[in-house]
Design brief:
Order of helices and strands: HEHEHEHEEEHEHEHEEHH
InterPro entries: ModA (IPR005950), ModA/WtpA (IPR050682)
Mean pLDDT: 87
Protein name: Molybdate ABC transporter substrate-binding protein
Keywords: Metal-binding, Molybdenum, Signal
GO molecular function: metal ion binding; molybdate ion binding
CATH topology of the largest domain: D-Maltodextrin-Binding Protein, domain 2
Number of domains: 2
Largest sheet: 5 strands, mixed
CATH superfamily of the largest domain: Periplasmic binding protein-like II
Organism: Streptomyces chartreusis
Strand content: 15-25%
Shape: elongated
Strand order of the largest sheet: 2-1-3-10-4
């Protein structure tokens, strides 16, 4: 074999190796570019999924303590969000929503008051029950009047307070009183459960029929007395995103927190029953 032929073959090998290296480098560069694009795309998708803005929650008064805790947890989990609450009687809140009050979430203390909102077409989707609540008698600390039953509240010398019958806690109390075949005349009907409980806390009443959760939240300011008729008047609590929500993604995320294991733990610790 001549020297010129051998030289030509060596050049072809070198040229082939160089081409292969260039192809490999090109492929690597292309792969890195595609990877960068994918990474940028993922980052962009993540940014678009990030929750922000205000979430306005209308919730039954009995949810005040537990929802306030969950609101802080939500804001911590989603920096850039703010949860604003409006607590009150479920009937009044429902009326506000159907009247056009801006809100993202409604958590009611009864299906009946939730129905006001759904019938008006103001709910987005079907409301879901997330907890239940049971009644209890709240007495003065130490229970000085020795109240031991619902029947004891019918004593004429006792000042007893009930929630208004249009409010879920009042409707439940009425149902329990009927179940016990009793007649009870309160000194006042209050607009929501917190107002009824406060009458006892301020010693303006001897007793009030409220939720177990409210007795627990009051701590040593009152004493709770259970009564069997309460089993006939347990309230389901439904929750829903509202149709006119201005921040539906965050509203759905808040409801998801309420229904999560962490949310249910907070609610259970407050005295609510599992749905």
């Amino acid at each position: 074999m001549t020297r010129s032929v051998r030289r030509t073959r060596r050049m072809l090998k070198v040229t082939g190796a160089g081409a292969a290296a260039l192809l490999a480098l090109s492929a690597c560069s292309s792969s890195d570019s595609d990877s960068a694009k994918t990474s940028d795309s993922s980052a962009s998708a993540s940014a678009s999924d990030k929750l922000s803005g205000e979430v306005t929650v209308f919730a039954a008064a009995s949810l005040k303590e537990s929802f306030t805790t969950l609101g802080k947890e939500f804001e911590k989990e989603h920096p850039g969000t703010k949860v604003t609450f409006s607590f009150g009687g479920s009937d009044a809140l429902a009326a506000s929503i159907t009247g056009g009050a801006p809100a993202d979430v409604f958590a009611s203390a009864s299906p009946k008051t939730m129905k006001i909102v759904t019938d008006a077409g103001d709910a987005a989707g079907t409301p879901a029950t997330f907890v239940r609540n049971q009644l209890e008698i709240a007495t003065l600390p130490g229970n000085p009047d020795k109240i031991a039953s619902l029947k004891d509240l019918t004593e004429s010398d006792l000042k007893v307070v009930l929630c208004d019958k249009t409010v879920p806690c009042g409707a439940a109390a009425e149902k329990a009183i009927e179940a016990g075949k009793l007649k009870l005349t309160p000194v006042s009907y209050e607009e929501d459960v917190k107002s009824a409980l406060n009458k006892v806390v301020l010693k303006e009443a001897d007793a009030a029929v409220v939720y177990k959760t409210d007795v627990k939240a009051a701590g040593d300011k009152v004493e709770g007395v259970e009564f069997p008729e309460s089993a006939d008047a347990i309230n389901d609590y439904p929750i829903t995103v509202l149709k006119e929500s201005q921040n539906s993604d965050a509203a759905k995320a808040f409801i998801a927190l309420v229904q999560s294991a962490d949310g249910q733990k907070v609610l259970s610790e407050a005295g609510f029953l599992q749905p």
